[in-house]
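Encode chain A's predicted structure.
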Amino acid sequence: MAKKLNFTMKKIREGSAEIYIPIGEKISKELPVFYNPVMKLNRDISILLLQQFTPMNICDLLAGTGIRAVRMAKEIKYKSITANDYNKNAFSLIKKNMKYNKVKFNVFNDDANMFLLDSKGFDYIDIDPFGSSNHFLDAAVKRLSRNGILAVTNTDTAALTGTYPKTCMRKYWAAPKKDYMMHETGLRILIRKIQLAGMQYEKALVPIFSYYKDHYLRIFFKCIKGKKECDKIAKHHGMFNGAGPLWLGALWDKNLANKMHSTAIKKSKGNKKDIDKDYYDKELLNFLKIIKDESKINAVGFFDTHRMKKIIKKEEIIRKIKEKGFQAASTHFLGTGIRTDAGNI
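Encoded structure for chain A:
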């Protein structure tokens, strides 16, 4: 039986779940159990992605309040769900929230790495820590199944985007660059670092959906077992724009991006009695639409229209590029950015 929690709580709704969270003056890791409402979009996208795959054995490694695991239990089809958190308050609160939502899954109160290594493995492992994911990659890769999905969040964007280049070199073995493309550069540096962790065990980690938002970077990888597949991954590591080494391959599976956007549109038009009125809000739909269009273009980097000598609206530039027979779309990395395969514009 979970112990009685000795901190003040309030009830909130996210997606199809209602959970209890601790009350604090501000969102910080000093809370008895961490919950960040800004990460709702992160969890929305995770749900949408999992809805495109057959049921899996799922691990929410750093579960906090249990919101992600509870939502998964209510919103997707799955084989099993396991939530883990080393914090004893979190362990108790996860059980409380699970019971309140009338769902059932496995809950553990272990060190994240020991928990993974003692497990039989999972088809989907979600790593969403404070700061860097580095500390959890080795154990996660070892316990990720063939054709499984590894989801990774990093919030130490200052290092990856060039504010602290020495830190980036120490932690990610690459040189960042602080310019208008810094968030894409940082994302690609992080992808390569995680891929290197996989290649040690002959597991090729292929990005299927990646993005930058607010204060974090997020990548979903599909795991393909084999030496040859790892060699293919390594061929896409190199330098770009004076930064790197980094990942020079695709950031998205365009078919998956299209399916996720379509599912979100259908859900947003669903029965409002069954889901929160902001379940899939305009921000998420617009974000997915930009990525869906962006994913069709096989190009590393993008152009910033603010750097052009002539003042022309972004939409007009995209139209003119397309008239020339090239592909072009807005990029989610920068509001004034255009991704295109046209070369110099």
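The longest strand covers residues 144-154.
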